[in-house]
């Protein structure tokens, strides 16, 4: 992964990220409840001490904090991490955040009950070494018996279809109006792709057009399960959105 490219992309997206959702507050609440069920199903009634290793503007971290968990967030984008903390504060929630790379987490070992890395963040890492390093860091900060929760796009299906992108999506909400679409450019081997995101956002002077992009490794469930096992985790299991209520496939494994 080019850290500079991904960081710049999310720095510039942070102010508008909520406009990727028709109703971002509802998404925060719903995703938080879904992941809360996953955590409590594996760790007991809780609450748990949770590291969100790719917190973005807080979509999952705020939802988990609202469910009673003690959450700390890190993100490659300092702008996104700062917004997550502020969004939590306005809701009366505590969410300490800092800028940090999941390949070198700035925490002591063994302190977290759970590490969450959701919403297709891990596939920004483009090599086996990078993925293994990040998973090793997540293993390190977990206590023995702690839980890893990863979510990605359904790359088993996407690699078979190799779609050219995502169709336009319009948002007209109390938080703003926007039209967003993506173009995907697949490598010849079908494993990785570059994406371009086009955003039209309404402001005081009319509509503004913004374009940004980055790169993903379309890791299949089998590939990611193997990486998780190689990092030392036990019992990696995938569950579908129908099973969890979360919008992406969810992998869980224990230290």
From TrEMBL:
<keyword id="KW-0489">Methyltransferase</keyword>
<dbReference type="GO" id="GO:0032259">
    <property type="term" value="P:methylation"/>
</dbReference>
<dbReference type="GO" id="GO:0061542">
    <property type="term" value="F:3-demethylubiquinol 3-O-methyltransferase activity"/>
</dbReference>
<feature type="domain" description="Methyltransferase">
    <location>
        <begin position="50"/>
        <end position="146"/>
    </location>
</feature>
<dbReference type="InterPro" id="IPR029063">
    <property type="entry name" value="SAM-dependent_MTases_sf"/>
</dbReference>
<dbReference type="GO" id="GO:0102208">
    <property type="term" value="F:2-polyprenyl-6-hydroxyphenol methylase activity"/>
</dbReference>
<keyword id="KW-0808">Transferase</keyword>
<protein>
    <submittedName>
        <fullName>Class I SAM-dependent methyltransferase</fullName>
        <ecNumber>2.1.1.222</ecNumber>
        <ecNumber>2.1.1.64</ecNumber>
    </submittedName>
</protein>
<dbReference type="InterPro" id="IPR041698">
    <property type="entry name" value="Methyltransf_25"/>
</dbReference>
<dbReference type="Pfam" id="PF13649">
    <property type="entry name" value="Methyltransf_25"/>
</dbReference>
């Amino acid at each position: 992964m080019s850290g500079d490219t991904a960081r710049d992309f999310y720095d510039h997206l942070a102010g508008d990220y909520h406009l990727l959702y028709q109703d971002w507050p509802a998404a925060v609440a719903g995703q938080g409840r879904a992941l809360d069920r996953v955590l409590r199903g594996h760790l007991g009634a809780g609450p748990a001490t949770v590291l969100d290793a790719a917190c973005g503007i807080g979509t999952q971290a705020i939802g988990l904090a609202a469910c009673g968990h003690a959450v700390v967030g890190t993100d490659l984008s300092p702008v996104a991490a700062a917004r997550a903390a502020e969004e939590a504060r306005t809701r009366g929630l505590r969410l300490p955040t800092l800028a940090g790379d999941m390949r070198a987490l700035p925490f002591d070992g063994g302190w977290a009950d759970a590490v969450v890395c959701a919403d297709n963040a891990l596939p920004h890492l483009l090599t086996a070494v990078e993925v293994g390093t990040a998973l090793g860091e997540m293993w390190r900060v977990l206590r023995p018996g702690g839980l890893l929760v990863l979510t990605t796009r359904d790359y088993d299906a996407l690699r078979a279809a190799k779609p050219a992108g995502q169709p336009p999506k319009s948002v007209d909400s109390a938080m703003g109006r926007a039209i967003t679409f993506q173009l995907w450019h697949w490598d010849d081997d079908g494993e990785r792709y570059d994406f371009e995101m086009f955003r039209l956002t309404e402001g005081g002077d009319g509509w503004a057009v913004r374009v940004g992009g980055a790169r993903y490794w379309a890791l299949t469930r089998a590939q990611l399960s193997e990486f998780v096992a190689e990092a030392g985790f036990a019992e990696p299991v995938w569950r579908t959105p129908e099973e969890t209520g979360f919008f992406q496939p969810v992998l869980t494994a224990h230290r």
